[in-house]
UniProtKB/TrEMBL annotation:
Cell location: Cytoplasm
Location of the Radical SAM core domain: 59-295
Pathway(s) annotated for this protein in UniProt: Porphyrin-containing compound metabolism; protoporphyrin-IX biosynthesis; protoporphyrinogen-IX from coproporphyrinogen-III (AdoMet route): step 1/1
Subunit text: Monomer.
Gene Ontology molecular function: coproporphyrinogen dehydrogenase activity
Chief location bin: cytoplasm
Protein name: Coproporphyrinogen-III oxidase
Gene giving rise to this polypeptide: hemN
Keyword annotations: 4Fe-4S, Cytoplasm, Iron, Iron-sulfur, Metal-binding, Oxidoreductase, Porphyrin biosynthesis, S-adenosyl-L-methionine
């Protein structure tokens, strides 16, 4: 491991809690809480009819809409990837998929009041930029026809980009379609690491796209990095971080690689012997916090960082930050509609996930049915716990007195078992509990998943091997 890092005031690395022997206590698996209940609680008894009813109920509150579109195609498989994807170089294969997306939109819109504004749009994958420019235009036209897209300046229309599959013409076209935020997959800039994960990507590709995006006036740029990949070392990852800081993205997501080859076959191409040790991964995490906070980034929580003037950091300061299936979001109180294979919808009191294989998704749509595979309708306890977990993960604080007033319960009594479970974390300096107010410490932001688990009533019925390690 590298020599100890001398930390700036307020940096979690300055805390004695960072001692590896203490952090090992929290080196276990846990949910990322992009939803509560998590997807492991979704049930096949929740059918397309249940989802239709949930869509209709959502009209009553008239919340704005958020649309997620899953584009599953990739030209090449990255060995680390755990996404739902289809490897092909034939862009013609996207045409029948886009036609079925159009049908799914029509089926969904039948149950929605489409006068509700679409404040958020996100294309994920796979690789959305696998689509040709004409196919992208077609997809936007269909979304607009069925739901009515927005041109409001405050909209958040984002797309995930593989810099190897895009150029300056792509960015200009995306801007003309209404996108104002980009997320670029980088993972690591070290050629040795890139070779080990089957993702050669020279820095110049990313830098050229970022320069053009800044020139075009895209509101926010996010870069995705991963630590714990094969052939990474603390020193090599520090070098990647320094280069990324020079590129000056508005946001950074620095994920912990979860090696689960039994679940994700491409990961079987990664050699166990080339993976960094737990202590080396811990050192990479320390270096990430040190370099990014020194460079002026705000640690939003877990693996997300943003410049203070970015909408993500502003939303956190205003208490309007939200968790959804894409991570942290600056647009709270939207009903999320997921479109495409494996996509998940979040309505006020329900979650619904589409069928996870292309064959089954296509079959359902071709029969004129919504492609719902499973889901869940939340009970009052789920709703209360979801709010507690979401506010803790987004605000890094939880006011139990506010929960008591909103839900007409004694929240301190209701969550007494959770408060008892947090005693060790409080002793270790992860959280400060004073009466009805819980405040997460700087180092607790790294371990916020562990803190949230104390409020999860369903966790004991689930197995650890479905989750990634917290640290």
């Amino acid at each position: 491991m590298p020599a100890p890092i001398h930390s700036a005031p307020g940096n979690p690395l300055a805390s004695p809690v960072w001692a590896p022997d203490r952090l090992h206590r929290y080196a276990k698996s846990g949910p990322r809480y992009t939803s509560y209940p998590t997807a492991l609680s979704f049930d096949a008894a929740f059918t397309a009819d249940e989802f239709s009813a949930a869509l209709q109920r959502s009209n009553e509150a008239q919340r704005p809409l958020s649309l997620y579109v899953h584009v599953p195609f990739c030209r090449k498989v990255c060995f680390y990837c755990a996404c739902n994807k289809i490897a092909t170089k034939n862009t013609a294969l996207a045409a029948p998929y886009l036609a079925r997306l159009d049908t799914e939109m029509a089926l969904t819109a039948q149950h929605l009041d489409t006068r509700r504004p679409v404040e958020q749009l996100h294309w994920g994958g796979g690789t959305p930029t696998f689509l040709t420019l004409d196919q992208m235009s077609e997809l936007v036209d269909k979304l607009d026809a069925h739901f009515g897209l927005s041109d409001a300046p405050e909209r958040d229309y984002a797309i995930e980009i593989d810099p190897r599959e895009a150029d300056v013409l792509t960015l200009r076209h995306l801007q003309s379609l209404g996108f104002n935020r980009l997320s670029l997959g980088v993972q690591d800039l070290d050629p040795r690491v890139q070779k080990a994960i089957n993702r050669p990507q020279p820095r110049a590709l990313t830098e050229t796209l970022m320069d053009e995006a800044h020139r075009l006036g895209f509101r926010s740029l996010n870069l995705d990095l991963i630590y714990g990949l094969p052939r990474q070392t603390p020193d090599s990852f520090a070098q990647t971080l320094r280069q990324v800081i020079e590129l000056n993205p508005a946001r950074l997501s620095v994920f912990n690689y979860a090696h689960l080859p039994q679940r994700f076959p491409p990961q079987r191409r990664i050699l166990d012997a080339e993976l960094p040790s737990h202590n080396e991964k811990l050192a990479m995490l320390r270096i990430t916090i040190e370099l990014l906070t020194t460079a002026g980034y705000v640690h939003i929580g877990m693996d997300h960082f943003a410049r203070p003037d970015d909408s993500l950091a502003i939303a956190q300061r205003h208490g309007t930050l939200q968790r959804n299936f894409q991570g942290y979001s600056s647009h709270a109180q939207c009903d999320l509609i997921g479109l495409g294979v494996s996509a998940i919808s979040r309505l006020n009191d329900s979650y619904a996930q589409n069928k996870s294989t292309l064959e089954h998704y296509e079959a359902a749509i071709d029969q004129g049915q919504l492609a719902t595979q499973r889901g869940i309708r939340l009970c009052r306890d789920d709703l209360l716990r979801r709010e507690a977990i979401e506010r803790l993960m987004c605000d890094m604080r939880l006011d139990l007195s506010a929960l008591s007033e909103r839900w007409q319960v004694d929240a301190q009594d209701y969550f007494q078992s959770a408060l008892n479970a947090l005693e060790q974390a409080q002793h270790d300096g992860l959280i400060d509990i004073r009466g009805s107010l819980l405040e997460v410490t700087p180092v607790g932001r790294l371990l916020i998943r562990h803190l949230a688990m104390a409020f999860d009533a369903r966790l004991l019925s689930q197995t650890d091997n479905h989750y990634s390690n917290i640290v």
